[in-house]
Amino acid sequence: MPVGAAAESVGFPSNEEIRMVRSIARLALMEAVRHGRWGASFHGFRVQALRQDPARGGAALTEVSLSVSLGKVVVARCRVTTNYA
Q1: I need a labelling partner for 76 at 20 to 30 A (CA). Which of 42, 48, 51, 83 fits?
Q2: Other Cβ atoms within 10 Å of 66 Cβ, number
């Protein structure tokens, strides 16, 4: 790589990488529901999940914010409502 070249040149992810990030996102959602927050990194992707409501309580539904980024670019951001079970 020539001196001064962009260090953040990220190619399009492969199908395998996309499937792995999807699996990590599912795990992040489940762990955030249980523990309040969870995050992981994989091949430049960063997956973060944060529970929005107070700890468990008696609520049947839980809202989790999910964010997936690749480098400094946010690839996906959403809020998911799920039952606690």
Answers
A1: 83
A2: 18
